[in-house]
Hints:
By secondary structure, the protein is mainly β. The protein has two helices and ten strands.
Amino acid sequence: MKEVLLYQKGESNILIPLFHDSIHAGFESPAADYEEERIDLNNYVTKYPAATFYARVVGDCMTGSGIYPDDLLVVDRSLDVCNGDIVVGILESEFILRAYFKTEKKEYLMPDNMCYKVIERTPSTEFEIWGVVPHSILNQRKRISARLARFNQFLP
Length: 156
């Protein structure tokens, strides 16, 4: 099996500050009083730490879902897979990242990048769902050049 970087969730000794107020992304909000609360992100991402792992993304098959190379995934093995979930699967002894898609009669592992092929579950291409990805952590700093290129399109 190909080596994959997996990190198991553990108890955190460092609590991170959390804003009390929401941050509005659609309109500017009036200044609010700042009230600090501290949270453990591990508690936010799962209820079942023994079944939760972090994995680093290699490849670009899920960029349409906002998952890019080097992003960090939370993989929860305790969750039942639902149609449309992003999952870590095992296909031919390799870990793969895809979206799970099921019709009335067939199951698929779907890429979210047109450069990759759809994988249908058949007797010759059996795959196993290893875990569900409920959260991903992306590095916004790695997206700066693409963001700046988009911003330049808005300017006259």
